[in-house]
Design brief:
Helix content: 55-70%
Oligomer: single chain
Mean pLDDT: 89
Number of domains: 1
Shape: globular
Low-confidence stretches: 161-175
Radius of gyration: 18 Å
């Protein structure tokens, strides 16, 4: 049985699911927050990107996972996690370099994920089964990380004064 379509479907469904979560729960609250607070909230999950180091652990992944994929993906994620911590720190400290640090993190983090996706699908062409226990990283974490990166780009590109407050949600209950 060809596992690649199931792998692709898992990734697609994760994008759909996390897109719904972001639109329903995350974005409305972020629109109410100060820009710095919203950026911190979107960056915090990326501090867990050290989990990508599991691509280097025998037993977690199959020995057949190509190092051309695993090494750059693992260390790229580790560096993204470090940049996320620095971005959060700079935002919390209200550093004058905070926005630049968030840009560096966001660009690096996005390029790292897209590069790993490209390498995994078109470059070394990993077999989804070779991910073994790390299968959840590209099927659950990567889509959620890419959605949060997209939201960060949206916040970074919008002017602070042009943010609109969400409309008041009316009750759907009829009396």
């Amino acid at each position: 049985m060809n596992r690649t379509p199931l792998f692709g479907l898992s990734i697609l469904m994760s994008f759909v699911a996390f897109g719904i979560v972001a639109r329903t729960y995350i974005w409305p609250r972020l629109r109410m927050a100060r820009r710095e607070e919203a950026l911190i909230a979107l960056t915090v999950p990326h501090t867990f990107r050290f989990i990508g180091l599991s691509f280097l652990i025998p037993g977690v992944v199959s020995p057949s996972l190509p190092s051309g994929f695993s090494v750059p993906a693992a260390y790229g994620d580790l560096f993204a996690a470090i940049l996320a911590v620095l971005a959060i720190w700079s935002l919390s400290a209200r550093s004058r370099f905070a926005t630049a640090m968030v840009w560096v993190f966001n660009v690096w983090g996005t390029v790292d994920l897209l590069n790993a996706f490209y390498e995994g699908v078109l470059g070394v062409r990993i077999d989804p089964g070779s991910l073994s226990a790390a299968y959840f990283i590209p099927t659950v974490l990567v889509p959620s990380f890419l959605v949060t990166h997209g939201l960060m780009f949206w916040l970074l590109l919008r002017k602070e004064s042009s943010r609109q407050r969400p409309p008041i949600i009316e009750s759907h209950l009829s009396v």
